[in-house]
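Run UTP6 small subunit processome component through structure prediction, thanks.
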Amino acid sequence: MAEIVQQRIENRIPELEQLERVGLFSKKEVKSLLKRATALEYKLHRLIITKVDFIAYIQRIGYQFKREEIEFSIISRINNIFRRATTKWKDDVQLWLSHIAFCKKWGELSKVFSSMLAIHPEKPALWIMAAKSELEDRNSSESARHLFLRALRFHPESKKVYQEYFRMELLHTEKLRKQQKKLEQAEMDVGGYEFSPEIMTGKLAEVVYRDASGKIQGADFILSLLTIAAIFDFTKDLQDTIIQDLQSKHTDDSLTWDFMAKRELGATVGEELQSAKGRASDMARREERCYQVYEEGLNSLSTEAMWACYVSFCLERFKRKTNVQQLKEKRQERLLAVLQRAHDSSLLKEDFYKNWLQVLLSSGDSEQTAAVAMAATQRYRQSVDVWCLALQTMVRLGSGATGKLFQDALTHVNPKSSLPLWQLQVEWSMTSQSPEATEALFQRGLLSAVPAVSMEIKEKYLDWSFGAGGYKKARKTFTSLHENRPFSKAFFTRMIQMEKDQETPKMSNLRDFYERALREFGSTDDDLWLEYIREELGPSGQPENCGKIHWRAMKLLEGESVERFTAQYTVLQTGHI
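Sure, done. The structure for UTP6 small subunit processome component is below.
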């Protein structure tokens, strides 16, 4: 090992002497560099080496130097160390990317990409990165094309590879078109060279599209290629080809109909109108054409996804601001009609009921709003979100059937998911029901077998008791529940805070509350022990109790909570907290 290290160090001496001669380093700095390099070389030749050692050596050599200040031999050495590291840790993609980042400044980029792809051909993103580098850094569309074709051998159905290959061919065509335009403007004689009309009109990209659409099905993928093509101003024919394929091969996909309908919004018909009313009338006609396309789509594809596209479009148009009342009313009328039809077909998605109810509430139609709320619960009987939405709506309407509806909701919803319903019912009861009815509700909630519900009910019950009957009632509620597990920490800390908020808080009560809390959480909650100690250090406490509390905490706490408690207790003793 020593001989190898010595040889490597001796190989560095000539270049360091040269750097000393040109004044980049002093003699003392050269000696320091040799000493550090020797130590790092020995690290790289130990039986057990780490990536950190390699990275430290690379940084020490001079990864941060400016190009004009670094010798070719130093660049070669850094590349050599990167190669040694990636040979040992072939699977570490981040290490490969670090080498690539270095090579983007100092060369050998293609070789590193080639080596990395030989090890990681299964990662499409790396093929795309390599191809983009060839196009952008080396200005070689031919090499980029070659890499994309190789990538497709490994990933013949990769949407992302095809999308980026398609984009690359369009970028290449755009570049050639710009070159041709500059040459024509300069009236330069280029001999017998001619730009290929096929290439200049994007035919290579069309070849990629044909291949991609033959292997990967789905309107979403075809539309992604159309979106890319639309970026370039020379792709009208290509876009027309893609749209024709959509209309002929993908009419069984709601996305096709959604795209075709929305195209009508951008269709130019006649001259641009100047008045607000005229523009609103024109927009109404455009939207009507969109509705017609959606209706045509529903005739051949009446699915939940198709209705979702139609409803989403109507909702988006309804939410658009307009000062023309007639257009606003037309949009609302269309939205409500489409929502009703989708619901009648049992194909309205759960999410849209919220929008439907919001529109109805804003219109002031209480009867229809209540009917839709109830219909939603019939359609999605086990959905907590739908029940909450319906209940909130009925509460807002002041319906007398709200109480029964809460009972129905808890009957149909999985108890493990019922917490939001309990929370909503408690809030409703506290604000609109009698104290006796609210107390009865809390008693029912306490019987829940779901821990989250039981703990939440205890907290709410304690808060309500304090608000309804003050400290005495809250203390009575706390006492009645203190053995009714499970508990949350908040149940105890709220009672502690209620005691501390009294005009003359009793330390004996606080000790009792802390002791009860520690019986539940003493093995894990180091903060609770510290709060107890701070209380004893306070004006009403007995500081001599702190030692005993500390001893108990150290005995009961487990794991990392012991370390946290020890650190915080030490700081507490120094008076910093």
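The CA atoms of residues 570 and 576 lie 9 Å apart.
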